[in-house]
Amino acid sequence: MSDHEGPMPHTDVPNTVADPPAGYPAEWEEDAVLRDGRSIRVRPIVPSDAPALQDFVASLSTESAYKRFFSVKRALTPSELEAFTVLDYRHRMAFVCIHDGDIIAVGRYRELEDAPAIAEVAFTVGDGYQGNGIGTLLLFRLTAYARTASISGFRAHLFADNHAMMRVFRNAGFQLAREIESGVYTVDFPTTASAAVAEAEGEAERRATAASVMPFFYPQSVAVIGASRDASSIGGRLMNNLINGDYHGPVFPVNPRTAYVRSIPTHASVLDIPVPIDLAFVVVPARFVVDVVRDCAAKGVKAVCIISAGFSETGNTEDEDELLRIVRSAGMRMVGPNCMGLLNTDPAVSLDGQFGPIVPAHGNVAMSSQSGALGLAILDYANQLGIGISTFVSIGNKADVSANDLLLFWEDDPNTDVILLYVESFGNPRRFARIARRIGKSKPIIAVKSGRTAAGARAASSHTGSLASLDVAVDALFDQAGVIRVGTLEDLFDVTALLANQKPPEGNRVGILTNAGGPAILAVDALESNGLEVPTFSEDVQAQFREFLSADAAVSNPVDMIAAAGPDEYRRALSEMLSCKEVDSVIALYIPASSEGSQEVASAIRTAFEESDHSKTFLTVYMNSAGAPEEFTGRGERFPVFAFPERAARALAKAVAYTEWLGSPEGEVVAFPDIDREAARARVEIALAGSTDDDGIWLEPADVDAVLGAYGLAVPRSAIVTSADEAAAFARDLGTSVVLKVVSPTAVHKSDVGGIALDVKGDDAVRSAYASVFGAVDDAQGVLVQEFVSDGHEVLIGMVEDPNFGPLIVFGLGGVFVELIGDVAFRIHPLTDVAAQTMVREVKAAKLLDGYRGAPPGDVDAVVESLLRLSAMVEDLPEIFELDLNPVKVGLPGDGVRIVDARIRVRNVVGSWIPARTDMPSKL
Ligand code: ADP
Ligand code: MG
């Protein structure tokens, strides 16, 4: 496969770039895994790539060169070389793929002179690398970049028989328009991110990644480098676990200092092993690891799990980088370093490749843990709670394999129904969100994120900035991706025990069956305070219960059968409730009054559940210090057993929230045809001209108004004046009551310093307000005279860019007390229509906008639209990194909103580079 950037009519025209950027934002350089497991690095082309590009062209076969250049090309002319490597990264852009220091593929686009916003696109993939999905990767990369660079369409020319490239275009999910002329196709397609494109991107990524990590879970052969006879050492324990776990394949201990480990002859080096090795565990001291991994690369090992510590966690990033370099260029994958190992309980392989003492039961829960010790503890508890494990990976420093990679494996893993993540830090949160959101649709993902890390604790130069210094980014990320976030390990197990054994409830109505009043009341309280409902049963249903329960029993819900209830009552009442249409979940509470008869009741509960139609989510609470009875946890269908009603209620509430997420549409990112993006961009570029300040600059009020106006965001009429006369004259012109605000580079919050006069009418009043407002600070530059917006609720709309999570958008009750009240909702950009609606509904102040207690209602639709327009602005103008619209005055329904105070902070993006605002797949 290869192809052609067209006959490239402008190849001799040098690119117009004065200063080629020295570097580019790190996010545009990423490693990708090919279908065959090899890793490549994808990055923008830079001028110093010229010699490598020349070598690459020279290496092309006649056919590849012909398809690319429409002639047999052996070398590029100096001007061609320059045109291909010195780009402006907006109108002309190229990505290269590097393997082992060589360029092995190039994808480029070039905006057409006669058709602005349309670019010709071309790909060339080296002969030894075709059929690996590289063309697809480059295509996704280029389209993602083109979108941010205002290129709306791509055009490609290819020979009619270039089926491979045509297939790349078609399978990528783009809407293609084709034309053929004298054997050459012209293919046109929009660069827009559509659902079809996203799906194709995701599918390509999943397939390649899942295949590349497969050798960790289903190796044909395993080596343990550093295997030891000392059963207490890590190398000894790991070896013992592999053997005692009955791994279905050969294990080769590697140790130059001993001839046998566990009666198996050792080899001095992995290179001496006479058969191919799929997976190698490395348990040698840190200083030997790099050499050992080099040997693994030479041996052709597919996967290495590095248990040894002493790398980036101790500051030794150098060796860790070297390890990564070795595995990437050899096409290996690496788990660790500094990890506890991994295991796969699938009986087909029985791989216990961790060094802890626990042998977890086989089950349907997969887990990735960033902490090794905690991973151990979790396996231990899982056993106790009857949670079975499918696969477990301690990812350690996650230098290569990350939770994201594992998610892509588990997505299609038939042995896994529920995914647990213990997360300490995110490598690429945006990628995580995209992957998790898709997988969460079919398998619940439960995550405990430790450390309430600040999303970006920064000087509070805006309301939004200071509000975002909580844990909001992670919460927003998990919320939007449907990840079930738990705050404690206890909750982690409780929710897992529920979802691993029962389907998520269909709704929030809960029926409770009990033999004791007190715990049932506690359960009701806990359920209701978690947002669940315990509805009173209808007369009909109550009558059914009365038929067989004693007259003392309560039957309205909870159904309290009182202490005398025996197995028969439990079985009949539970059967009744499990088939009742008035609830979605059923909790059976049982407190054994004495050990007498408790087994029979437990069996009755089990039988009633097993005989039911399983339309309900079923939980039990068994309150007894001796723990759950054999009847509950033994063989047969599984259901969770909780020791306390509150824990059951919390777990159920999490499961219901997951159901609600499953049922809620994702919505769409809305495009507004009336937006004048170029006008806004021009304003920002002029304002930024010459600025090199990393902290950026706050736009002048006139620029703020122009940018907001270009995005259809309404601001009241205003002018900046420098004398009382001017102020009075402008106020007369407006003919309304006015507001005067000091303009000063230092007064962040003008009302704090007395720099505001509201609702001012009449010449004299305006003049005296001018004097007092202007005099409020020492560095006043003038006074903003603005139309007074008399009525309306005040809300805040803002954006702040988190270094890892990207732009966060905030909505809340506005005004000067916003930090104090903290009634805000965060979402990660980009907002969909549904996200904008739900974030407005989520804050407590939403009730005010509905017209709470006689207060006038607000124009909620206009608020939602403003949020979406803001999101469009954030997407188009990467220079904006902090923004505060506070307050936005919300008029009556139909009257719209008006932004009476706005601050926008911008900074130059690196060189002419455009930061990626939305994530794109990095794996094929
Ligand atoms: P700052 O946030 O710097 O203190 P603002 O411009 O937000 O200054 O003004 C402070 C408060 O004054 C606002 O929260 C709002 O209640 C009120 N206010 C400001 N401008 C107007 C206006 N044009 N119409 C009505 N009220 C206004
Ligand atoms: Mg304000």
Structural write-up:
By secondary structure, the chain is α/β, with parallel strands linked by helices. The chain is 35% helix and 22% strand. It is built from 29 helices and 38 strands. The strands form seven sheets. It has an eight-stranded mixed β-sheet, sandwiched between helices. Strands 17-16-19-18-20-21-22 form a seven-stranded mixed β-sheet, sandwiched between helices. Strands 28, 33, 34, 35, 36, 37 and 38 form a seven-stranded antiparallel β-sheet that branches. Helix 8 packs parallel to helix 9 and helix 12 (429-440) packs parallel to helix 14 (472-481). The longest helix is centred in the first third of the chain and has 23 residues, at 195-217. The chain is globular and about 95 Å long. Residues 1-22, 452-460 and 920-924 have low confidence and may be disordered. Adenosine-5'-diphosphate binds at residues 716, 739, 741, 749-751, 756, 758, 786-789, 794, 815-816, 886-887, 900-901.
